[in-house]
């Protein structure tokens, strides 16, 4: 049974897109469903972007030069644009994604990254973004806690030291739930690591 929200051709929806090179950098857009590939597990939509919500600097850094899946066959399109020619987001929307060659810039997105409303999109984006920030905070600890890094500028000897620094850095944003730091910095035991398959 399909649990995803089902949209039809021509529907105005919101989506989170990402390039093949940076799948964790999510770009919120408003779009029109151009085509649909139904699947019980993972429906997909081919969308025409009509509005970006990020500023032009972010888009030039993370969208320009990026590759997107353009159709259900897996064909890729590179957003091969000159950054100097676009000073406003509206220029990008009007000249490229609604320009003469707009069909070249259709993008395929999985249904789990699509929502009906902007409010739903914002909730989904913030949830995913928070998760990715937490993974980066964990990665920082793992990078700065290594024994061979004891003379490094950012070395933390213990989890407690890192927690105090993180509390100072985040201030009122530091999560209140009990055990949050333990869950964030959890290190698997030997048995768990042995059962992990490394590719």
Gist of the model:
The chain is α+β, with helices and mostly antiparallel strands and 199 residues long.
Description:
With 199 residues, this protein is of the alpha+beta class. Helices cover 33% and strands 19% of the residues. It has 2 domains: 12-116, no CATH class; 134-186, no CATH class. The strands form 2 sheets. A 5-stranded antiparallel β-sheet has the order 6-3-2-1-7, covered by helices on one side. Strands 4-5 form a two-stranded antiparallel sheet. The two termini are 32 Å apart. The model has no long low-confidence stretch (mean pLDDT 92).
Spatial strand order of the main sheet: 6-3-2-1-7
Radius of gyration: 21 Å
Beta-sheet strand percentage? Answer: 15-25%
Tell me about the largest β-sheet. 5 strands, antiparallel
Count of spatially separate domains: 2
Helical segment count: 6
Shape: elongated
Q: Kindly state the mean pLDDT as a whole number? A: 92
Model regions low in confidence, pLDDT < 50 over at least 5 residues: none
Gap from first CA to last CA: 32 Å
Order of helices and strands: EEEHEEHEEHHHH
